[in-house]
Amino acid sequence: FAKTVSNLENLQLAVSNHAAQIARALRKQNSQANVIGVFVRNSPFSKSEVYYSNKACTGLLEASNNSFELIKAAKGILNKLYKKSVNYKKVGVFVSDLVSADRLQLNLFNENLIQEKSQDNKLMQVVDNLNMSFGRNVVGVAACGLNFDKKDWVSNYENRSPAYTTDIKQLKVI
Predict the structure, then answer these.
(1) Tens digit of pLDDT for each residue in 68-88?
(2) What is the CB neighbour count within 10 angstroms for residue 67?
(3) Could you tell me the sign of the dihedral formed by the alpha carbons of 129, 130, 135, 140, in that order?
(4) Integer distance in angstroms from the first to the last C-alpha of the chain?
(5) Burial 32-45 (b: 16+ CB within 10 A, else e)
(6) Better-predicted residue by pLDDT, 46 or 19
(7) Residues 97/33, Cβ–Cβ less than 8 Å
(8) Rg of the chain over CA atoms, in angstroms?
(9) From CA 101, how far away is CA 65, in angstroms rounded?
(10) Are 26 and 65 in contact (CB under 8 A)?
C-alpha cells in the first residue's frame, strides 16, 4: 500500500479486488482454482510496531473461477487473519490446485451443480464481455468498491523500477 491500512473495510476492498482480478485471469486462461489463500503483513522495517505476517488458505467445495465465490472465500480468510492493532502494508490473494474449466468435478451433496455452474459461467461471461466492450471494471462486484474507494489502499507506483526490457516506450534515448 502507499499508506498503511488498519481498518478491516479497506483491507476487504483490497482483497476483493485482488480476488476479482484472479478470477478474471482464471477465466481468461480457461482454468479454475480448488484452493484460495490470503496473506497479510505490516512493514518489516517499522520501528514502532512488532512485525506481523500471516497467511492462510482454504479448499473450495468445487473448483471455481467465479468472482463472487472467490471474493467470498478470500474475505472469510481475511477475517480470520485480521488484527485490529496492526498497520498493514501489504495484503494479497493467491490460488492453487488449478484445473481446466472444461472438467467439472461433481459434488455428491449438490445435485444442481451442473445447472448452477452453467448459470454462473454465463453471468461471468456477460460481465467479461461488457468489460471488454466498454472498458475495464465497467461492471464489477460491489464488494470491490467504487473507484474513489480505492485511494487508501492502492499500491504506490511512483517508486516502481522502469521496465526497459518489456516496454519499448521506457527505453533510454541516447
Answers:
(1) 999 999 999 999 999 998 999
(2) 26
(3) negative
(4) 35
(5) bbbebbbbbbbbee
(6) 19
(7) yes
(8) 18
(9) 8
(10) yes
Q: How far is CA 89 from the centre of its chain?
A: 16
β-pair type (88-100, 53-64): unpaired
Q: Which amino acid is at 19?
A: A
CB distance 42 to 171 below 8 Å: no
d(C-alpha 52, C-alpha 87), whole Å: 9
pLDDT average, residue stretch 28-50? 93
pLDDT digits (tens, 9 = 90+) for 76-121: 999 999 999 899 999 999 999 999 988 766 666 666 666 677 777 7
Instruction: Please tell me the predicted confidence (pLDDT) of residue 39.
Output: 97
Q: Which helix or strand (DSSP H or E) is residue 16 part of?
A: helix 8-28
Cell 474507494 belongs to 149
Contact (CB, 8 A) for 70 and 64: yes
Look at the chain and count its residues.
174
Task: Specify the pLDDT at position 73.
Answer: 97
